[in-house]
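Re: the request from the purification team.
They wanted to know what the chain is likely to look like in 3D before they choose a buffer screen. I agreed to run a prediction and write the result into the notebook, where they can find it.
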Amino acid sequence: MHPDLDQFLRTDPRDVGCDQAMAVLHVYVDLLLDGERPEERFPGVAAHLRACGPCSEDFEGLLAAARTMSAADAPLTVEPFGGDRAQLRALFEEAEDSPEALDTYIGSGVVLVARAGDDILGHLQLADGEILNMAVVSGHRGRGIGRALVEHAIELARGEGRESITVATATADIGNLRFYQRCGFRLRSVERDAFTIERGYPADLESDGIPVRDRVWLDLEL
């Protein structure tokens, strides 16, 4: 079959074309963000976005930008996460380079999430007074989300009657060391050769240009 004829036969007759789709794309995105079903109001646009790669890319870009703006405007809340933690695995992996190590503790303790509207912008996992894992979504860092999560974790630990809260990070991770010390944590001890191939960490793992080998423990008295 001739390629042009094949394309014609596969074209959805409801497809409104690029010009009409682009003219109402912002409305389509707004409806989607409001929890509506824009494909029901604009079936021709939905058909076109399925068929046209460039317009679909424009739609995805506009949707991502709108979600970012919405999250930036919404008030931040921190609350326990009661869902399936597999939904947060990508965020956990931002702070854990060993899938094997993550598998051993992802189900432990309590997980706090920072939300702006319906969007989860960060998380913190606390178990037995230790911060096991914490990360903030790229693009939302530097806005105080990490500190808000730590402050809620501190209050949670106090509520459990704990005398201190601990956290460990790589000695090579200058950013984390700066962050936790600004939150009031102090260096306690160093664990040498904590990040090895045997524990699932890449042999060439680096942070800030420094080989990741040793782990430093910090604590904060409550």
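For the purification team: Strands lie at 76-80, 110-116, 119-127, 130-136, 164-170, 186-191, 206-207, 210-211, 215-221.
Please add any questions underneath this entry.
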